Input
Amino acid sequence: MPKSKRAKVVHLTKTQKKGKELTLRLYANIRECIPQYPYIYVFSVENMRNTYLKDVRTALAGDSRIFFGKTRVMAKALGDSPSTEPYPSTSLLSPHLTGPCGLIFSHRDPPSMLSYFSKFRPLSYARAGHTSPLTFTLPAGQLYTRAGEIPTSEEIPLAHSIEPTLRKLGVPTRLEKGRVMLDEAFVVCKEGEVLGSGQTTLLKMFGVAVAEFGVEVRAWWEKVTGRVEVVSGKHGGGGGGGGSDGGAGDGTGTMGGLEDEMSEEEEGFGGFNDEE
Output
């Protein structure tokens, strides 16, 4: 059979890296957004889930723009000192850009934004390393899909095909006439305990969601007054409530600081930047 002309081998060593391109684009887009929006919010994510972060982006799409990229590049775009900040006091947000965090440029005022995030706290299944907020126990007797978390009349018996998996996870189950039975109660996890992979698998198997996704606003900046308000004191060094001395810089010389970022492997560009 003749070899297809469409089948071409692409050597990974010859592909072009996009690290520098992404860095420059992120920097330029943040600088472009600063004069267009009256508020900038620094936010962090608790129990990160891609699906829920996309929901946040969809909900804010009409009047906001979200950036979730490399923190040092975002901090550079906001300015790391009064002489390099594009607008008064934007550099005061930079110390709060640590860990998994991002920026929201928005027309929504702080009370509206804080109210939205305080209500949007969906539950998801925990991952290994998460601290359990509750004690979960499988009751003795026949096992059901929700393990007694809902009324028995609404429960569905656990399928017999799952019984071998339960035994592999350390649950001492047995089959009796096609029913999955447990001779005595089995404690899956206790409150305050750091969960392992087997425990998280069991919690998911029985539909127990204990990880709460949440977005925490660390600080926000107002363009009209140049005021920076620190909402959460867990991160960052500078205090809020005032502007930086000496006014805003002209932004010259700030691109040079990005050379160090370009030489490193980029991370965090997983499709959450609200690119046009």
Observations:
- The longest strand covers residues 214-222.
- Confidence is low (pLDDT under 50) at residues 233-240, 250-254, 260-272.
- Residues 19-33 form the longest helix (15 residues).
- The helical segments are 19-33, 50-59, 71-78, 110-119, 163-168, 197-205, 259-262.
